[in-house]
Amino acid sequence: MTMSALVAELRETLPTGHLLVDGDMSPFTTDSSPGVAGTPCAVVVAITTADVSAALAWASRHDIAVVARGAGTGVSGGALAADGALTISLARMTDVVEIHPEDRFAVVQPGVTVDELDRLAGSHELMYAPDPASSATASIGGTIATNAGGLRCLSHGVTADAVSALTVVLADGRVLHTGTRSRKNVAGYDLTRLFVGSEGTLGVITEATVRLVPRPRGNQVTFSASFPDLTSAARAVSEVMRGAQTPEILELIDRTTANLIEDFSPSGLNRDAAGTLIGLLIGGDASTTELMRDLMEHHGAISFAAADDDHLLDARKKAFPALEANGMGVGWVASDSAVPPSRLPELLAFVEQESAREKRTVAVVAHAGDGNIHAAISASSDVDDMSRAHDLAQRIAQKAVELGGTVTGEHGIGSLKTDLLDIAFDEVARNVHHAVKAALDPKGILAPGRAIGVAGTR
Amino acid sequence: MTMSALVAELRETLPTGHLLVDGDMSPFTTDSSPGVAGTPCAVVVAITTADVSAALAWASRHDIAVVARGAGTGVSGGALAADGALTISLARMTDVVEIHPEDRFAVVQPGVTVDELDRLAGSHELMYAPDPASSATASIGGTIATNAGGLRCLSHGVTADAVSALTVVLADGRVLHTGTRSRKNVAGYDLTRLFVGSEGTLGVITEATVRLVPRPRGNQVTFSASFPDLTSAARAVSEVMRGAQTPEILELIDRTTANLIEDFSPSGLNRDAAGTLIGLLIGGDASTTELMRDLMEHHGAISFAAADDDHLLDARKKAFPALEANGMGVGWVASDSAVPPSRLPELLAFVEQESAREKRTVAVVAHAGDGNIHAAISASSDVDDMSRAHDLAQRIAQKAVELGGTVTGEHGIGSLKTDLLDIAFDEVARNVHHAVKAALDPKGILAPGRAIGVAGTR
After folding, report:
1. Residues of B in contact with A424 (CB under 8 A)
2. Cα–Cα distance between A433 and A439 in angstroms, integer?
3. Which residue of chain A comes nearest to B368, CA vs CA?
4. Are β-strands B86-89 and B66-69 bridged in parallel, bridged antiparallel, or unpaired?
5. Per-residue pLDDT tens for B20-54?
């Protein structure tokens, strides 16, 4: 059968969804990564689980690769369209199916945005805790598929911790229900967690039951503390994380990033400080803030400021837009490693030392309390220079693993970071990943080559 | 090869572990369930991961079934020896490998008891939160394999939430390392969670990296509230769980259980109350306790008591020993269903109605805040009566699932509750479980027939 005949068959099969071809597909091919999208055979804009089921049954029948996508806010190329593959967009499945404030959960379709869910939860004095930087447009489905992080992870956990049940369409079109609405459940395997963060390689999520938490109450104080060197800042983080009361948020930006932000949108950041910590304290009083000041000054902070508004956090949130505006999006290589908090000084020292040695600009922002750094490594468009930048990203990942951490804390492997898999996993771990993948997607049609690096059958 | 030749080969293969046969095996065959143990072909008492690896390679080579066991405190028959199978005991692997208070994790061998780990954590003002009733003797490995619950789950999550990395020996003897020491990690699938709660059907855990949390500080107040009917008590629970400040612990015991406890060891429980709630408040003040009293009285509590010692919680912890002492261990059938907290009144009303209709004694204790009930259903030794008691357990599980919950909240399926799998899972979910099992244990030697009901090859 020709591809156009196949696509015609798919169009016939879809119960309610839209099928896009040719130029109409373009809004559904790229994501927020620097990767280059391929040309899909078609795009299904799903409206119902039945659409996704029909599309996957068709793809499975004809051995056609499938890329599922939410809002396209991922930065590791997980949602990039692939040549000849079917893209399935979940962005139009935007129903909030149920919300149960008394039991603190909501049932949503995957296209609901993170901020919309959090806003709805807020009307019941609850919140949806995961807050990736792209929360205004990021979809729940995409953030579950990637196990997205965010600033509030420090005190509320990652996306995985907020998911209690899923509806997933399997590679062959069958519909699987995982998990329960109860807080506890030990029947069978934790299939919910298996799909969270699997980046579309095991199935396509079409409904999620997510946990809501009480919106934190009490006095909110943001603070910033500037340090003459990154190691001191990282040591202060390590000590904060040993305390009984961890802040709601604890972020770090380095000098390069602070200057990019100030150039982009003046925010009162100290351009001369090697590192600035920005945090949020909730429920404390004046003495809580003073204790934080004392701790920061004890570790060498050269300035400390507190505020009762969000302008300090807003400055932190400008880091990614500022990087993009400064052309870092063209050639930059992103590192997303994470280590235990006490090892953050070593990881940051390594990044500083290597960037100095290579005379290469590296801009670091970090979810410091979680030990999760984002290092944007500059590179020119020269192939060799780009290759050396990638080498540095690999060395940072290797260092993070040696320190007990991971090659990616929240951005995922996607299609752009599969070179890190050999750093993250030994042969046994790779084999187990491949065995699980083969068990659930024997034809290898789902996101081939991505996340765990298993190529498809075509 | 005869079995004795096979066992001789195994003895040769073990690097350091002990091999027990015949009468010496008896301490390693039963668990805390009412199930009947089979006669294993041998028992390996492992000392190192290499022992477990050698034993599994041997078992895999010769297609011999394997049952792994910790301390034998499970109540669903997961650790019962099986006829002709090899039992591997992890109880002698008791090293605390590392403890990192600054990053709040510990690395332990599986035979370390839950209380021992919590005691060690306590010396750093931290705690290991999961606290199954059997914590004094339960092993970390066993509680991870079963994803054990406990009283503190309400505020700190279940065992799965406390596990960040595992060393697991696979069915063929290969050694897999999952997870990281960092707080965040999205590289690959969440294999750690896949093994947690898999009840020995996917691999044998030989080392675990577990999270520790700050030991809660502040004023500790226990309270009890007695109610004239279970529905009122359950409604009070539902309202408490809607509040911003959930108690550290919130338990429920019914009249039958209260009287069994008072007969076993007088504890000051109200013998006439249909239901008594027992809770722990941490960090509040007198007004916190008064708010709780008001809430309970608003929902019809006929008495309320507060104390600054643990005698109320100790009374709750006597429930299982009291049941055992009263002969309930002989014929009782245990139900362990869980529902969302707001559905607890319906589930308890169903249990009351059905037990009254059958004129059958049912003793209920519940991790009420988690919506997790333990109903001990009495039965005589008569086969038909026992069968009717099992039918009631199934109907309770079915009701829990209809209310959005699960057939087992913390005890697991083990070898004794596989009849509940058809209530918990539809055909697609069963198939996915079986596919994952086949991917990791293609010969089906690990805990055949248990947890997910897949029979082995022999």
Report:
1. 187-188
2. 10
3. A183
4. parallel
5. 999 999 999 999 998 999 999 999 999 999 999 99
